[in-house]
Amino acid sequence: MTVHAASAEIASLDTQFADLDLAGRLSLAATLGRAVFTTSLGIEDQVITAAIGTHRLPIDVSTLETGRLFKETVDLMSETEERYDITIHRFHPQQDDIDAYAAKYGLNGFYDSVEARHACCHVRKLIPLAKALSGAEVWITGLRRGQSGNRATTPFVEFDAERGLIKVNPLADWDIDRIKAYVSAEAIPVNPLHARGYPSIGCEPCTRAIKPGEPERAGRWWWEGDEKRECGLHVPESPNGAQATENAAQPVSQASFAASPVR
Ligand code: SF4
C-alpha cells in the first residue's frame, strides 16, 4: 500500500476498519506506512493515546504546542507520558512567525477578524502540523462524526490529497457516551476542563465552556458567530492562508459531559 492508494483501495480499507476494534484499527493503520497520531489531549485523543501506549503500537504521538494552551492541557501531556511510558513530541510555532503576526495583527488580533484568526492558526498550528507530519505516510486523528455536523460523514480512512497521505480516523463511529465509558473503564487521564463544561479544548483565549444544549464545539472561536468554523487542520487551506469553514452541529448535554470521569 502506497500513499497514492487508489480510491477503491481506500474504500476497501474503510470497510476493513469498520469491522475492527480500536486496537485493531490502529494496528492496521500502522501497517500502511509511517504513522503519526496528532493529539490535542482532548478526551477522544486520550483514548487513542492510551491504546497506542497500552499496546505498544509503532505510531508516533505528536502535539501542536501552540504556546497558548491551557495549563491543564500542558500538565496532561506530562501525566500521559508517564502513565503510558511514551513520548509526546511537541511541535512549536517559530518565534519569527509569532513576532510577524503580532506586528501585523497584535498578539491577540485573532479576536478582530476571521482573517486574523486564521492567520494565527496558520502560524501556531498549521505550520507546526506540517512539521509534525513531515515524512509521515499515515495521519491518525481523533475526529468523530458526532463532534459537529460537518464531521458527520467522517470516514475511517480517506486520502488527504493536500498533504499526500492516508488519514485514519479510528474513532469516527464512536459517540461521546462510548468515549466516556471507555475512559472510565480504562481509567484514562483526561483534561479536568472537560468536567467544567469544555467538551472541546483548544487554545485558552479561543475556548470557552459551553452552555447546556450547545454543540460540542460551540465554545471554539465563539465570537465569530459562524456556525461553520474550524482551525484548518482538517479542512483544506486556501492560498491566502485562510481555510474553508465548516460545521453546524449536534447538541451535547453539558451536564452529561461534565459527569464524565476526570483525573
Ligand atoms: S486557536 Fe486562537 S490562539 Fe490558538 S492558534 Fe488559533 S487563533 Fe491562535
Automatic annotation (TrEMBL):
GO MF annotation list: 4 iron, 4 sulfur cluster binding; adenylyl-sulfate reductase (thioredoxin) activity; metal ion binding; phosphoadenylyl-sulfate reductase (thioredoxin) activity
Note accompanying the cofactor annotation: Binds 1 [4Fe-4S] cluster per subunit.
Binding-site list for [4Fe-4S] cluster: 120-121, 203, 206
Bias type Polar residues, positions: 240-257
Annotated CDD domains: PAPS_reductase
Protein's UniProt keywords contain ATP-binding: no
EC number per UniProt: 1.8.4.10
A cellular component term, taken from the record's GO annotations: cytoplasm
InterPro entries: APS_reductase, PAPS/APS_Rdtase, PAPS_reduct_dom, Rossmann-like_a/b/a_fold
The entry's keywords: Cytoplasm, Iron, Iron-sulfur, Metal-binding, Oxidoreductase
Location of the active site: 231 (nucleophile)
Chief location of this protein within or outside the cell: cytoplasm
Residue numbers spanned by region Disordered: 232-263
Cellular localization per UniProt: Cytoplasm
Involved pathway(s): Sulfur metabolism; hydrogen sulfide biosynthesis; sulfite from sulfate
Family: Belongs to the PAPS reductase family. CysH subfamily.
Protein role: Catalyzes the formation of sulfite from adenosine 5'-phosphosulfate (APS) using thioredoxin as an electron donor.
NCBIfam families linked to this entry: APS_reductase (TIGR02055), PRK02090.1 (NF002537)
PANTHER family: 5'-ADENYLYLSULFATE REDUCTASE 1, CHLOROPLASTIC, 5'-ADENYLYLSULFATE REDUCTASE 3, CHLOROPLASTIC
Protein name per UniProt: Adenosine 5'-phosphosulfate reductase
Organism: Endobacterium cereale
